[in-house]
């Protein structure tokens, strides 16, 4: 039973992470990267990867997992009629382009700057979730606005390796879309963002694989293989919880967690 012991000591944590990411993806419309990145980074550093390489790997691996998690979340939200498809078709093209371009930049950035950017973004996202401010604008956006906003969402999401929900949900809420439909629509937008980012990260795959075990380019394969089935399985549970649990309270609990994550990341770069 040595193999079983090795599995639980080294890989079972990825299964648990998949459960957490799946539930949060369905519940809050986020891809899960905002949780995955710091956890994956810590695990990869503990496994002996250099901190700089580990953070880029965490970003790439997180995006690859979001590709699959978002599919499960999309199906569940579509079943519950939580997706505003006209917004999806209008936002997807520019979000895809923004993610693709931003990832090509992120690959060549120093991990220290990416870490601090991620920590700053996480902190402000946490404040936004905690305050849970109500929208003050209720207008239908024109094509120029929605294109520019989608480009920004795709770009920022790729830099911090998230599915875009942290940006998409509040934006759609400001445009008179209900919270449930904003979450569902955000889940759809997360797929092209994650797909574009993953494709970009894989461009240097063969060279990277020759130097690191259990990897394909910047992807850490055990995490992808073990995380994705559990995240896909539990995403519908998160969608179901949107109808039963007080989302406002859950957002604030999640916000406190994110603040802790951001402060820990900043401390790791300053210490």
TrEMBL record:
Q: Which family does it belong to?
A: Belongs to the 4-toluene sulfonate uptake permease (TSUP) (TC 2.A.102) family.
Q: What is this protein called?
A: Probable membrane transporter protein
Q: Which organism is it from?
A: Methylophilus glucosoxydans
One Pfam family hit: TauE
| Cross-referenced InterPro entries | TM_pro_TauE-like
Subcellular location(s) of the protein? Cell membrane; Membrane
UniProt topology in membrane: Multi-pass membrane protein
Q: Which UniProt keywords apply?
A: Cell membrane, Membrane, Transmembrane, Transmembrane helix
- List the transmembrane segments: 12-37, 49-75, 87-106, 113-131, 151-173, 182-199, 219-241, 253-270
């Amino acid at each position: 039973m040595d193999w079983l012991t090795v599995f639980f000591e080294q890989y079972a944590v990825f299964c648990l992470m998949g459960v957490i990411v799946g539930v949060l993806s369905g519940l809050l419309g986020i891809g899960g990267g905002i949780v995955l990145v710091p956890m994956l980074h810590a695990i990869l550093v503990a496994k002996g990867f250099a901190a700089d390489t580990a953070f880029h790997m965490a970003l790439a691996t997180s995006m690859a997992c979001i590709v699959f998690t978002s599919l499960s979340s999309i199906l569940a939200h579509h079943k519950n009629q939580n997706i505003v498809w006209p917004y999806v078709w209008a936002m997807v093209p520019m979000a895809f382009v923004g993610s693709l371009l931003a990832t090509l930049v992120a690959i060549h950035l120093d991990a220290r700057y990416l870490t601090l950017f991620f920590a700053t973004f996480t902190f402000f996202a946490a404040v936004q979730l905690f305050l849970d401010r109500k929208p003050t604008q209720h207008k239908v956006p024109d094509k120029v606005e929605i294109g520019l906003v989608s480009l920004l969402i795709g770009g920022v999401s790729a830099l911090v390796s998230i599915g875009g929900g942290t940006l998409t949900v509040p934006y759609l809420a400001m445009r008179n879309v209900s919270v449930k439909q904003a979450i569902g629509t955000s889940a759809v937008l997360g797929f092209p963002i994650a797909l574009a980012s993953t494709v970009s990260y894989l461009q240097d795959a063969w060279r990277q694989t020759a130097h690191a075990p259990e990897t394909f380019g910047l992807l850490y394969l055990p995490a992808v293989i073990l995380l994705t089935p559990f995240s896909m399985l539990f995403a519908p549970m998160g969608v179901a919880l949107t109808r039963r649990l007080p989302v406002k309270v859950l957002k604030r609990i999640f916000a406190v967690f994110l603040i802790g994550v951001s402060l820990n990341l900043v401390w790791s770069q300053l210490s």
